[in-house]
Amino acid sequence: VLTLFLITLIVFTGVRMIPGDPARVMAGTDADEAGLQEIRAKYGLNDPIPLQYLRWVTLALRGDLGESIRTREPVIKTVAVKLPITIQLACFALMIAIGIAIPAGVFSAVRRNTVWDFLANAVSLCGVSIPSFWLGIMLILFLSVRLHVLPASGFVPFFQDPLANLQRMLMPAFVLGATLAAVLMRQTRNSMIEVMSTNYIRTAYSKGLAEWVVIFRHALRNGLIPVVTILGLQMGALMGGAVVTEQIFVVPGFGRLIVEAVFTRDYPLVQGVVLITASSYVLINLLVDVSYSLLNPRI
Questions:
Q1: Which residues face 67 on adjacent strands?
Q2: Under 8 Å between Cβ of 239 and 280
Q3: Which of 119, 153, 188, 227 gives the lowest tally of CB atoms within 10 Å of its CB?
Q4: 91 contacts 284 by C-beta, under 8 angstroms
Q5: Where is 64: in which H helix or E strand?
Q6: Angle 267-295/75-110 helices, nearest 10 degrees?
């Protein structure tokens, strides 16, 4: 609760430091002063900042995030349209990242200091180093322009055409998932190496247990605790950090909504989007904390 309170203060004051007049953006460059004053009065832009803040927080607690200055639609309605798209993209990216990172990290730790370990680390370092915008452009160039395997951009709702939706979400999800997979792979490897050197793992081997039983039943479960922590932070980052990827692939999600809202000085929309992003961050981290007790009952 304290975190969210501080976030509301930072968001509210930060948005008002953006250069430009939202009333002029809304009315156009040819608007007269009377028209601007009418818009400011309608949206409470002439009121003292503390009063504007209290009004916004009071309405937000009721689920009312205000009305967009640009589209004249309720912010909550706009978010309800855009948020599921980014959630789907983030979940796809997460599935790709976990599918690559966990097996590669475990294999790299078990085959430590071998050729496979060095190769996995090199690929992981490339994944961290390559910018997402460059990777996205290269995928469009090869898979769409030259090979005609996948559509270059756009979005189709899942319930309208599931296959077309998956085809258009695959590349942006891979771009987001590649960087996340690289981070998770390195964390999984380091965590597994630490766990594999503990006494209870040596005891498990000395009891004659099969290697896969020792690795997946005993070592991996404890080794996943720091990985889950990183995963929670990265999942929160995906919710608000998919701006570049959504711009490249023309995905009408949360990231593009943030950019458009900032450029048009749409105070209510920016405040609502950032507040929801921050709230999702807090919720995801709470779920991560709860998951520790599932991975390790001693916690």
A1: 74
A2: yes
A3: 119
A4: no
A5: none
A6: 40
Distance CA 299, CA 293 (A): 5
Reading the block at residue 139, the tokens are 């995928």
Q: Residue 129 has which token pair?
A: 């180093």
Residue 167: CB atoms within 10 Å: 15
- Do residues 94 and 269 make contact, with C-beta atoms less than 8 angstroms apart? no
Please tell me the number of Cα atoms within 13 Å of 113 on its side-chain side: 1
CB 53 within 8 A of CB 14: no
CB 169 within 8 A of CB 88: yes
292: its two tokens: 């520790």
Q: Where does residue 297 rank: exposed (0-12), middle (13-18), buried (19+ CB within 10 A)?
A: exposed
pLDDT at 29: 65
Measured between alpha carbons, how far is 251 from 44 in angstroms, rounded to an integer? 33
What average pLDDT does range 49-62 have in this prediction? 85
Measured CA to CA in angstroms, residue 252 lies from 55, 213, 265 at distances of 30, 45, 19
8 A C-beta contact, residue 49 and residue 16: yes
Which of 213, 231, 297, 193 minimizes the C-alpha distance to 98? 231
Q: Please give the full DSSP string across 113-145, using - where no structure is assigned.
A: TSHHHHHHHHHHHHHHHS-HHHHHHHHIIIIII
- Whether the model clears a pTM of 0.85, i.e. scores above it, the answer is no
